[in-house]
Design brief:
The chain is α/β, with parallel strands linked by helices. The longest helix has 26 residues. A 10-stranded mixed β-sheet has the order 3-2-1-4-5-10-9-6-7-8, with helices on both faces. InterPro entries: Rossmann-like_a/b/a_fold (IPR014729), Universal_stress_UspA (IPR006015), UspA (IPR006016). It holds the Pfam family Usp.
Length: about 300
């Protein structure tokens, strides 16, 4: 299929890729991606996918028969997105792709040549059933670059009044999330909030520890240790980037719920987290902690692989 007006097939990088189907959720994702592309001086690629569910599948049906109709539909959707994006970005920095297939698979494929891939939390048509567990879930789980799900009823950006919240433990992916979060905070001139969830609550699952001698002291020691490690990380970030406003918080309770609640309390502009972790984020896999944060957070969530 031909893209509306422009294609990225001849470029080496897609920059920021955003899935767009004209739905309210994809419009929020587009708005977020446009502003982020402007801030970071990146190319923007608009991807529209005609879902396989829209093509007849009886017998040996050839979707090419309807290629012209699909092409016209994509051109209309992408033209709308381009009109929106050109209000902020130079036209030469905007590219478009139209494809037939699975929206999630196409976005994941595009992510191999992207700096960032962005989806809305809900969509229709090309970004089919954009609920978590569908396109957004699959993209955040399998993207080859950082993936952002834009949440909420309006677009929120990191800035002076909306901090970047980084969920941290000492796993490899959390280290990557920290590096990314620092860069975003610097670019957005936003405070950086580093949060970790201690494992103290895990002892409550073992009733036999209730009478354990020194149990309370052990819990306090665990809590302090998490705080000390987090503060060391914050101090290193502050030394490496003078002027960066860094805060730390040790949270209790379930990791996903705790991070999402913290984002609400702090009016966060972005939550950044690794796709997998350990320690305070035991078993951090999409479907558990990351899934919970993406589902509950009031702002965009970036998952770093």
């Amino acid at each position: 299929m031909n893209a509306a007006a422009s294609s990225t097939n001849d470029t080496t990088s897609h920059g920021i890729v955003v899935g767009y189907d004209g739905s309210p959720g994809s419009r929020l994702a587009l708005d977020w991606a446009v502003q982020t592309a402007k801030r970071d001086d990146r190319q923007l690629t608009l991807l529209h996918c005609v879902g396989l569910t829209m093509t007849p599948t009886f017998r040996a049906y050839d979707p090419g028969v309807q290629a012209h109709a699909y092409d016209e539909m994509s051109q209309g959707v992408l033209a709308e997105a381009i009109d929106i994006a050109t209000k902020t970005l130079d036209r030469k920095d905007i590219h478009s792709l139209s494809v037939i297939g699975s929206a999630a698979a196409e976005l994941v494929g595009a992510s191999t040549q992207a700096d960032l891939v962005v989806t809305g939390s809900r969509g229709h048509g090309a970004i089919s059933a954009g609920l978590l567990g569908s396109t957004s879930y699959a993209v955040t789980a399998h993207a080859h670059c950082p993936a952002v799900v834009v949440r909420g009823d309006e677009v929120v950006h990191a800035g002076r009044d909306h901090p970047v919240v980084v969920a941290f433990d000492d796993s490899k992916n959390a280290q990557k999330a920290l590096e990314t979060g620092v860069m975003v905070a610097l670019a957005a001139e936003a405070p950086l909030h580093l949060v970790a969830v201690d494992n103290v609550g895990g002892l409550d699952a073992w009733p036999e520890t209730d009478g354990m001698l020194g149990r309370e002291e052990m819990m306090d020691q665990m809590h302090r240790r998490v705080g000390e490690v987090l503060q060391q990380v914050a101090d290193e970030a502050a030394r490496a980037h003078p002027g960066l406003d860094v805060h730390t918080s040790v949270l209790g309770g379930g990791a996903g719920a705790a991070v999402a609640a913290y984002a609400v309390d702090m009016r966060a502009g972005l939550v950044v987290m690794g796709s997998r972790g350990h320690g305070g984020f035991t078993g951090m896999r999409l479907g558990s902690v990351s899934h919970r944060v993406v589902h509950d957070a009031p702002c965009p969530v970036m998952v770093v692989h």
